[in-house]
Specification:
Blueprint: E1 2-7, H1 12-21, E2 27-33, H2 45-49, E3 58-59, H3 62-65, E4 71-74, H4 78-91, E5 94-97, H5 104-113, E6 118-121, H6 127-143, E7 148-155, H7 165-177, H8 182-185, E8 186-188, E9 202-208, E10 214-221, E11 226-233, H9 237-249, E12 256-258, H10 260-264
Parallel strand pairs: 1-2, 1-4, 2-3, 4-5, 5-6, 6-12, 7-9, 8-9
Antiparallel strand pairs: 7-10, 10-11
Helix pairs in contact: 1-9, 4-5, 6-7
């Protein structure tokens, strides 16, 4: 039985994860954490999640909860996740990170610290989306340079980072398949007299509206036809289920950095 500690346990994703852990075989809730001053601190995590008492009180320090678990499930922010990663490395615990918005320096640090423990990092925990990543790369490879690649992502108005981590992951996947890189060929929105589109551009566009959980479309535009690969999320439950599946799997793996392709055997 995997013992999980959930950070952000008073938030939307954290509460969803707490609810689903209670209904999932092979995993149990052993700890719950929220930021200091949050109204959920001191309350039972199950009651906050709406499933009744779980016997786990929400605390405001990961240091107090991590010793009780095998793995930390972390959906917070890039900055908070970096601090949580440092702690789990020192405590030799595993961590599943679903936060987004990491910059290059932070991503490099995650990769470096993964040698000390077991780290699972994915910009999107949806099983379906990660299949779409693989499919989009294959479409890019098969269609070749004669098709323009554009990525459009839509999220709720409360999302803080743009473009989404998932859109960037899609961009990296199709860029690699097409022999390009986002660093040199990525174009993030367009405005004004920008001139004719260059053949190597990979456009990435962010839309923020209402309560959209997460939509992503990769467009391959040719002369006379268009291919679109779309993934739509209707509930955060899909992210929670993916994270829980990763949390059950991760503690038995060797030290290192893992992602959804490892979990799903998509190599």
């Amino acid at each position: 039985m995997t013992r999980a500690v959930v950070t952000g346990a008073g938030g939307r994703m954290g509460s969803q994860i707490v609810r689903l852990i209670a209904d999932t075989d092979g995993i149990s809730l052993s700890g719950a954490v929220e930021q200091p001053g949050h109204r959920a601190v001191g309350r039972d995590a199950g009651e906050v999640a709406g499933i009744g008492a779980a016997g786990v009180r929400i605390v405001d320090r990961l240091e107090d909860a991590a010793p009780l678990g095998d793995v930390v499930i972390d959906f917070t922010s890039a900055a908070a996740s970096m601090a949580h990663l440092d702690l789990v490395c020192r405590m030799a615990k595993a961590i599943v990170i679903g936060s987004t918005g990491f910059d290059g320096r932070q991503r490099t640090e995650v990769e470096r610290r993964a040698a000390e423990t077991r780290v699972f990092l994915a910009p999107n925990m949806s099983l379906g989306l990660n299949v779409v990543l693989r499919v989009s790369a294959e479409v890019a490879r098969l269609l070749g340079d004669g098709y323009d690649i554009e990525i459009v992502e839509t999220h709720h108005r409360f999302k803080k980072d743009a473009p989404s981590g998932t859109a960037l992951a899609l961009g990296e996947a199709v860029a690699a398949a097409a022999g390009r890189t986002l660093e040199t060929d990525g174009v993030y929105g367009r405005r004004g007299l920008v001139g004719e589109r260059t053949p190597r551009e990979i456009g990435i566009h962010a839309v923020r509206a209402g309560d959209v959980v997460g939509d992503h479309t990769v467009i391959f535009g040719g002369l006379g036809e268009r291919v679109e690969v779309t993934h739509r999320v209707s509930s955060r439950e899909t992210f929670a289920r993916g994270a829980i599946r990763a949390a059950i799997w991760l503690p038995s793996q060797p030290r290192g950095l893992y992602g959804m392709k490892d979990l799903l055997g998509l190599e």
